[in-house]
Write a structure and sequence with these properties.
single chain; alpha/beta; TIM Barrel; 3 domains; eight-stranded parallel beta sheet; three-stranded antiparallel beta sheet; 17 helices; 46% helix
């Protein structure tokens, strides 16, 4: 590189910030300022590398850091040193042209609504076609096969108002840069050649076990308390048995912040090229959007199931001797700021703000009532979804009152346009929704959504053709609903019939809340009376005999009421 010597000098200088200034300790009063400054310097390092690679001369920044920044740092004048870094960042990050925020950019009547189907690369924990050996992404041929199966089954790709789409992902940290670029190029090529739209789905923090450069630094790993012992792995309850992923990353550690910006630059700059090509061809509606996260959350420790986030609290200036007034609220802010970091970085690289969406899951999935809202959502509470940096996006499995809860929270925030980032017309537990696919889609599209991303199409091949997820996505009734939407016909929201998942979820929550007290008050005879029924209802749920389980729940509640 032409400016390699100057760049190396700058990097060596910046590294000094990772340690206390000469002769100085880090008292509590300076911790927050030092951490913030450290994050900005790491950001500047990554940005200057990219800036130099684009042909710019970093000598002015290097000289500024040598002559102004370092003396201020040595003197412990963090505020003045931060001002120097801010000026340097402004030089390598020129202010973008003013654009409306994602939330403010409400669409007119002409905005396209997308019916999308997720195709997942079959990485650890993700159900989809396995990548070719040595790869982390699907090939163009694999994506074409998926799209061809959609078009053949549905029979229509829609128009500029109602468009069929496919979503690729996960775009993850494990994926090398050039493979990422090729994955994006191939996906857009499949979209153009088949007259379907494409959406991109980011894995912001799950699959990063191959990033040894990041994993080797304990500062990048979350902890469960102020002892700051790194977590044992990230727990994901995506099935009956918990799955173990790479350790939960610390969302605001300086190295993670820098890595996010580098990764977003690679992704965003490639998407920008493809959007320019679509515009030149008059095919701009073939970009459905970018989901900047995959149920973003601070996960739980795999071995202990304890909530995490204490490393992030430390980077926010808190400690055991200086704890936050509300640790849960602070961790909610950490999650939101992490999504905003991705969104701002992707937007800066060229992705339009109105096409950026978050993807969180805040509604209860399951029949356990015990955990507090912050723990159930792992600090991705509903307010996380609302930011000027992106439009809201949610998982929309129709369990209990989930869809109504999403509609209500959107109404509280002025009814912005939003997306279903993940879902289908059945609960992940296998519990039926009690509604048709047309009604499910109506609950989403008729209430302001611009994209619905249906999961489970084709997963597992023929061996899983009769799996409840596959049936919910591929049976004749949902196929007819898809075609109806793509023809632009109104979606009718019909009342639920038969089994009610909302009522059953409420019954189970009431049983779990009342049973321990009832047994305690009535002794061993009550326990002997209740336990066989509870074992039976567990068996019915396991076998997905939902109506029978609901009837037995009524009997148990009557018993608890003394009837």
């Amino acid at each position: 590189m032409k400016h390699a010597a100057k760049l190396s000098l700058f990097c060596l200088l910046a590294i000094t910030l990772l340690h206390p200034a000469r002769g100085q300790s880090q008292p509590d009063a300076n911790e927050a300022a030092h951490r913030r400054l450290s994050a900005k310097v790491q950001d500047l390092q990554a940005s200057v590398r990219r800036w130099a690679a684009e042909g710019h001369d970093p000598s002015t920044i290097t000289r500024t850091m040598e002559e102004q920044f370092r003396p201020l740092l040595d003197a412990g004048k963090f505020a003045e040193a931060e001002a120097v870094v801010d000026k340097a960042l402004a030089q390598v990050h020129p202010a973008p042209e003013a654009k409306p925020s994602a939330v403010e950019a409400k669409p007119g009547s002409g905005e396209t609504q997308y019916l999308s189907f997720q195709v997942m690369t079959g990485l650890h924990g993700f159900s989809g076609p396995p990548p070719l050996p040595g790869r982390h992404s699907l090939s163009k041929a694999q994506m074409e096969d998926f799209v061809h199966s959609l078009v053949k089954a549905i029979g229509i790709t829609g128009d500029a108002r109602h468009k069929l789409a496919f979503a690729i992902g996960p775009l993850c940290f494990n994926m090398p840069d050039e493979e990422t670029r090729q994955f994006i190029r191939d996906a857009f090529a499949v979209a153009r050649e088949n007259d379907v739209a494409v959406a991109l789905h980011l894995d912001d923090s799950m699959c990063w076990e191959e990033r040894k450069d990041l994993l080797s630094n304990p500062d990048n790993l979350e902890t469960a308390d102020w002892k700051q012992v790194p977590n044992t792995g990230r727990r994901m309850d995506w099935g009956r048995t918990p799955m173990k992923f790479a350790p939960q990353m610390c969302f605001n550690s300086p190295a993670i912040v820098a890595a996010v910006k580098e990764r977003a630059s690679v992704i965003g700059s490639e998407v920008k090229k493809e959007l320019e090509a679509l515009k030149a061809a008059g095919k701009e509606p073939l970009f459905a959007g970018f989901m900047a996260g995959w149920e973003t959350r601070i996960g739980r420790d795999f071995d202990t199931d304890r909530p995490l986030g204490f490393r992030a609290l430390g980077h926010r200036g808190f400690s055991e001797n200086h704890p936050p007034a509300d640790a849960n609220h602070e961790r909610v802010l950490v999650v939101k700021e992490f999504i905003e970091l991705w969104a701002h970085s992707l937007h800066e690289a060229g992705i339009p703000g109105e096409k950026l969406y978050c993807h969180i899951a805040f509604t209860a999935q399951g029949l356990d009532h015990k955990e507090r809202a912050e723990a159930v959502s792992t600090f991705a509470l509903p307010e996380v979804a609302f930011s000027p940096a992106y439009r809201p996006g949610f998982s929309t499995y129709p369990e209990g009152a989930a869809l109504k809860a999403i509609q209500d929270i959107l109404a509280e925030h002025g009814s912005p346009r939003w997306i279903s980032g993940e879902g289908t017309n059945v609960s992940p537990t296998g519990m039926p929704s009690g509604i048709t696919m047309e009604t499910y889609l109506g609950h989403i599209f008729n209430h302001g959504a611009v994209l619905t991303n249906v999961f489970a199409w084709g997963v597992g091949g023929e061996a899983m053709r009769n799996h409840f997820f596959r049936r919910a996505a591929e049976d004749p009734e949902p196929l007819a609903a898809y075609a109806k939407f793509l023809r632009g016909e109104p979606l009718i929201e019909s009342a639920a019939a038969g089994f009610s998942p909302e009522a059953f979820q409420d019954k189970m929550h009431r049983i779990q809340a009342q049973l321990p007290t009832w047994v305690q008050q009535n002794g061993q005879q009550a326990k002997d009376q209740a336990m066989p029924r509870m074992e039976k209802i567990k068996g019915l749920i396991k076998n997905q005999q939902w109506q029978e389980a609901s009837t037995l729940a009524d009997e148990i509640l009557a018993m608890l009421a003394g009837k």
